Amino acid sequence: MLYPTTNQPLMLLALAICGLVSGLIFDIFILLSNLLKSEKYISHFFDFVGVIFSFSLLFIVNLFLNFGEFRAYILPMFFVGFILQKLISKFLWTKVIKKCYNGVRKTNEVNIDKGEKN
Predict the structure, then answer these.
(1) In 3-state terms, what secondary structure has residue 60?
(2) I want to staple 23 with a disulfide (CB 3.0 to 4.6 A). Which of 39, 40, 49, 85 is the partner?
(3) 36 in Cβ contact with 42 (< 8 Å)
(4) pLDDT tens readout for residues 8-57
(5) What are phi and psi of 36, to 5 degrees?
(6) Are 57 and 22 in contact (CB under 8 A)?
(7) How far apart are CA 107 and CA 40, in angstroms?
(8) How many Å apart are CA 62 and CA 53, to the nearest integer?
(9) Rounded CA gap, 18 and 77, in Å?
């Protein structure tokens, strides 16, 4: 029983990173579904594909880390990483994007006031 106890911090970190990557996958698919708003079925399709990719990633990581054994800490650590990514994208990325957007908007307003065309 030495193997699981010595590598457990590495497993926890890998599962949290797996949750972060799954959150990024969902963010990419949400972005794609927002760009292609032609039909409502597209968002359902991208949600389905995101779930398939996320759980496939979780099962592959679990296969390499625990030889496929599901333990009590696997899903909670996966969801901790997923929730952490959602919090990071909600607070950090939206603030960065708003600052960039406002900077570009102010630059365009100054150029328009000067009579320059972009």
Answers:
(1) helix
(2) 85
(3) yes
(4) 888 889 889 999 999 889 888 887 887 777 677 888 888 899 899 999 99
(5) -110, 65
(6) yes
(7) 36
(8) 14
(9) 9
